[in-house]
Amino acid sequence: MAKERAVVVGAGGISGAWFPPLIAEKVEVAGVVDLNVKTAKARIKEYGIDAIASSDLKATLKKTKPDFVVDLTVPQAHCTVTCTALAAGYHVIGEKPMANSMAEARRMVRAAAKAKKLYMVSQSRRWEPKHDAIQRTVAKGELGRMTTANCDFFLGAHFGGFRDVMPSPLILDMSIHHFDLVRYMTGTDPVAVYAKEFNPKGSWYKNEVAASCIFEMTKGVIFTYRGSWCAEGCATSWHGDWRLIGDKGTLIYERDGDPNGQVVKGKVSGFGANLKPAKIANSAMKITGMHGALREMLTFLRTRKKPQCQCHDNIKSLAMVFAAIESSNKGRRVPVRAL
Ligand SMILES: NC(=O)c1ccc[n+]([C@@H]2O[C@H](COP(=O)([O-])OP(=O)(O)OC[C@H]3O[C@@H](n4cnc5c(N)ncnc54)[C@H](O)[C@@H]3O)[C@@H](O)[C@H]2O)c1
User: Fold this and answer.
1) pLDDT at 2
2) Residues in the chain with pLDDT < 70?
3) Can you list the positions of beta strands (E) in 106-183?
4) Residue 107, Cα to own-chain centre: how many angstroms?
5) Right CATH number for 126-285+319-335 from 3.30.360.10, 1.20.120.430, 3.10.180.10, 1.10.150.240?
6) What is the distance in A from the centroid of ligand 1 to the CA of 226?
7) Which numbered atom of ligand 1 lies nearest the CA of 36?
8) Taking the complete model, does pTM exceed 0.90, yes or no?
9) For 157-169, how does the pLDDT look when each residue is reduced to its tens digit (9 = 90+)?
């Protein structure tokens, strides 16, 4: 199999999670681009790769002619970097969140369509065997028809740095993971939301770092999300603690434990139904996180099989983020509009 060639843009913190899978997949990293060339050079040295270090993306693309570009820059730069790569004729895989605004995200979708190139967003939490098992369990109808999804996410997170002062730190920086997961697990898309963001008493954040949101999803599913990065004690999982309910039973996934559930056994007569353990589907997923996303991009390059999280789909998860903020600002229910 011929080696694919890539250019990595953004050599900051998260690139440390991308170079090992790129190397494991024998992708030839031909260029590393960062506004700060020293940062690019340091990564090249750290991983012992034979790549150009540069702060000029266009020039690096011209020189290296890669098969794809990996956009690991900060959210404010995703639109410029990804649109530059697409316009130059290259496929892109990029970090979440897709963009810093819906206007930028829509521009990126149009840029991919115009260039006839693929742009996928890496929502790393999709590539997790327990999440794959939940998705399969729901899809095979074990719980019956889905009615309800609840996710709780509570942590006392003392990051320091930009999150302490940015607007809507929870919804903008974290909830995109949970919003994308509910779409993945239940096979539904967002329709409308009522949300209330708030900053709890004693908060060490400048802005609203907690939220309660009620999303109306397609297929009549209601998704309730409660989250805070300013909640000391009894932390949930970073993936969130989940309860999924269908008209035949319930699945619970909490604190990273094995998903489990109960479903109705036989006919209901009297107050409570007879119940039996839900059959949780097996997952054969071996490659997880960013590596899973990268593998789907490589599969696309080799076979043209379309990956998950292409931009015109992932924009629906991003739309949940911006609609929740809009709803909270307006104090009313708002539609979730992606494109
Ligand atoms: N999937 C996850 O769980 C996860 C975890 C952490 C971060 N992330 C995402 O990864 C992305 C990067 O986060 P990070 O923590 O590595 O940030 P970072 O600030 O550590 O690194 C970003 C790098 O991009 C460079 N950069 C910025 N604008 C650029 C531009 N226009 N051209 C070239 N380089 C540019 C910066 O100089 C910096 O070196 C963000 O979108 C973040 O949300 C995802």
Assistant:
1) 56
2) 1-2
3) 119-122, 146-154
4) 19
5) 3.30.360.10
6) 27
7) 37
8) yes
9) 999 988 999 999 9
Return the ligand 1 atom nearest residue 10 CA: 24
Gap between the Cα atoms of 36 and 42, Å rounded: 10
Tell me the best of 7, 9, 14, 100 to mutate to test the pocket of ligand 1, counting ligand atoms within 8 Å of each CB and taking the most: 14
Q: Is the CB of 132 under 6 A from ligand 1?
A: no
Smallest CA-to-CA distance from 66 within 240, 298, 239 is with 298
Ligand 1 atom at shortest distance from the alpha carbon of 123: 1
124 lines ligand 1 (CB under 6 A): yes
> What is the 14 CA–ligand 1 centroid distance (Å)?
6
Superfamily of domain 5-122: NAD(P)-binding Rossmann-like Domain (3.40.50.720)
CA 43 to ligand 1 centroid distance, Å: 14
Q: Are 125 and 17 in contact (CB under 8 A)?
A: no
Contact 112, 84 (CB under 8 A): no
Q: Which residues of 40-71 are buried (b: 16+ CB within 10 A; e: fewer)?
A: bbebbeebebebbbbeebeebbeebebbbbbb
Contact 230 CB / ligand 1 (< 6 Å): no
Give the pLDDT score at 170.
Answer: 98
Given the DSSP bridges, would you call strands 241-246 and 249-253 parallel, antiparallel or unpaired?
Answer: antiparallel
What is the secondary structure of 41-87 as a DSSP string? HHHHHHHT---EEES-HHHHHHHH--SEEEE-S-HHHHHHHHHHHHH
Distance between Cα 10 and ligand 1 center (Å): 6
Atom of ligand 1 nearest to the CA of 12: 21
**Confidence (pLDDT) at 223:** 99
